[in-house]
Amino acid sequence: MAEEVSKEIVQKYYNEHTHFKINDFASVSPRIESAYKTLIQYAPKNPSRILEVGCGVGSIVYRMKKHWPGADVFGIDISTESIETAKKLFSARGIHFQSGILLPETYKEGFDLIVFMDVYEHIAVQDRPLVHASLLKLLNNKGRIFLSVPTPHNLIWSAVHKPHTMQPVDEHISFDVIGKLAKDTSTEVQLFQNKNIWNIGDYCHIVLEKNDDFETAFFKPKPVSLVEKTIRILGKVKNRVKKPFKVLWIKNKLK
């Protein structure tokens, strides 16, 4: 965004658009369903603590709690109206909602899964360092971050053809932006995949994982099955047989 937008303007916008989030839950949105399917597929196994940033009225928090009933699921949103609605709709044991923005001190304990469902593009560039610092502190080892975002081409087209759909902050999320997110949060990109929702390549699903013990794990011998060992041995034999012919071919070519 060329202009800096105040927190008050952003909060007012989302308070006034709470009914759209309720409608998304009441109806079946291809955008949300596609993102949720990827989220479940790439989430850590049996996460015990989950956070959704920009949770809206809490429908994804509710669905994640149903999918992982043993987990504590938290939702935070800048919109006070959305959080009040979420508490009315989905309050239950193991579900926690609060209004505000994500800061390093917002939560005392870490999370195994942190979700940004069509939210990260609405975080202004100047606000990202604080969000990244929060993620660096709060994401547990082997934890994952999931993001669903519109592609830059989608936002460019929307700004021209559907300007009424643009929000106070709508940043372009490129691979370079995700690379910066990964660097700042000490995570690795596990998935960066364009999706076709309403148009070709209009959304992108992204997964990052934190590996504090990557070096230790990397230098441990990989378990090899009997089939893999057999394939390796046969490959070595094949290469030894072929090597003299390759050497002869190279010599002839270099004459």
Description:
The chain has 255 residues and is of the alpha/beta class. The protein has two domains: 7-217, 3-Layer(aba) Sandwich (Rossmann fold); 221-253. It is built from ten helices and seven strands. It has helices spanning 7-16, 18-26, 30-42, 59-67, 80-90, 128-138, 152-161, 175-185, 214-218, 226-253, and strands spanning 49-53, 72-77, 95-99, 111-117, 139-150, 187-195, 203-210. A seven-stranded mixed sheet has the order 3-2-1-4-5-7-6, with helices on both faces. Strand 2, helix 5 (80-90) and strand 3 form a beta-alpha-beta unit. The longest helix is centred in the last third of the chain and has 28 residues, at 226-253. The radius of gyration is 23 Å and the shape is elongated. It starts with 6 loop residues before the first helix and ends with a helix. The model has no long low-confidence stretch (mean pLDDT 94).
In brief:
The chain has 255 residues and is α/β, with parallel strands linked by helices. The protein is built from ten helices and seven strands.
